[in-house]
């Protein structure tokens, strides 16, 4: 896969890259005068005739590939059927999912992103960002699909021709999506630990107390709560440093500490969204209803220090703030996420895309 190669009619026009892509590589491609984004999955590999593998090994690999194909095809088809729904215009849905030889590929539209830092937006601009993101999530949840990997790198901020227009959020990367209550096996399920819900983290570790059916759209709502806090404050909620990521802290019953500059109503909403029990989290419709009020996106007072003062910490708690690397020039639409020292950077077998002018 290199510049000039043609795969199923798509001619690569940029050098393939695996930055923020885990076990995949991506590039831009052209077909019939239109530019697209194309991703090549490095695994699974579909076994070919005469490969020399044993019959048992071949059957196991074929079973993995069939499950991979089924999940991607059913999610992609469900999304394409809802392209006319309100809010679906900001979903960057798969246009073409195919296999060439032993390798799987996915194609989506190319998105031109804004050179803007969303955390510097006004309250009204942040409200538009959060509402357009939530409208996309509502489309997914309305058809029973869990996105499975909501995080800043999977939210692009689209550049509009009109300089005075608000920039909407474009939701990308459905490679880890699944039907609610029907996730892949623990060793296959994706998602970023930093934004993962407590039940997802426990399921990944094969906790017998978390069956597959416990992974529902409510897991996305936990991530929405963390995303909202980040877009409003450029921080994730503080949590006890004994735990690597917020979801671990919540799973253990520890509280998250939300930025005190936020209105009390906003902190209450975020607290509910990041509840330990999935059933206690507000639905995406409830979140949208709350986001009718731009005052929820306002900050009061001067910025907080990088880490909370010791006097502001709950007794006996060691709060820790996961940090974010500033995106390099030209790549502000996709934040580079850096987990806390000692925390695993990713909890998934593959991480698909994040950054640059597109996913």
From TrEMBL:
Matching SUPFAM superfamilies: Protein kinase-like (PK-like)
Alphabetized SMART domains for the sequence: S_TKc (SM00220)
GO molecular function ontology, one term from the record: protein serine/threonine kinase activity
Domain Protein kinase: 1-296
Organism: Actinomadura parmotrematis
Stretch list, region Disordered: 303-359
Name under which the protein is recorded: Serine/threonine protein kinase
Keywords: ATP-binding, Kinase, Nucleotide-binding, Serine/threonine-protein kinase, Transferase
Lineage: Bacteria, Bacillati, Actinomycetota, Actinomycetes, Streptosporangiales
Pfam families: Pkinase
């Amino acid at each position: 896969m290199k510049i000039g190669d043609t795969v199923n009619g798509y001619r690569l026009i940029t050098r393939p890259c695996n930055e923020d892509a885990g076990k995949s590589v991506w590039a831009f491609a052209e077909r019939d005068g239109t530019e697209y984004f194309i991703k090549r999955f490095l695994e699974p590999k579909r076994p070919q005739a005469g490969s020399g593998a044993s019959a048992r090994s071949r059957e196991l690999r074929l079973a993995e590939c069939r499950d991979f194909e089924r999940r991607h095809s059913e999610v992609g088809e469900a999304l394409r059927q809802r392209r006319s729904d309100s809010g679906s215009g900001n979903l960057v849905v798969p246009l073409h999912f195919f296999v060439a030889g032993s390798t799987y590929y996915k194609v989506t539209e190319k998105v031109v992103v804004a050179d803007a830092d969303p955390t510097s937006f006004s309250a009204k601009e942040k409200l538009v960002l959060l509402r357009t993101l939530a409208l996309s999530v509502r489309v997914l949840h309305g058809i029973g699909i869990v996105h499975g990997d909501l995080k800043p790198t999977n939210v692009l901020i689209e550049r509009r021709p009109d300089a005075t227009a608000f920039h909407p959020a474009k939701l990308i990367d459905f490679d880890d999506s699944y039907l609610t209550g029907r996730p892949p096996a623990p060793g296959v399920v994706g998602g970023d630990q930093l934004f993962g819900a407590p039940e997802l983290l426990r399921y990944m570790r094969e906790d017998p107390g978390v069956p597959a059916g416990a992974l529902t759209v409510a897991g996305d709502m936990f991530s929405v709560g963390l995303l909202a806090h980040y877009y409003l404050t450029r921080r994730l909620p503080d949590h006890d440093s004994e735990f690597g990521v917020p979801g671990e802290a919540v799973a253990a019953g520890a509280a998250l500490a939300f930025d005190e500059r936020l209105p009390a109503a906003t902190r209450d909403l975020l607290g509910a969204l990041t509840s330990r029990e999935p059933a206690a989290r507000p639905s995406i419709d409830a979140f949208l209803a709350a986001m009718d009020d731009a005052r929820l996106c306002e900050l009061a007072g001067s910025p907080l220090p990088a880490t909370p003062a010791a006097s502001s910490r709950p007794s006996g708690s060691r709060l820790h703030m996961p940090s974010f690397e500033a995106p390099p020039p030209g790549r502000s639409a996709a934040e580079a996420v850096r987990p806390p020292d000692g925390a695993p950077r990713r909890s998934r077998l593959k991480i698909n895309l994040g950054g640059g002018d597109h996913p």
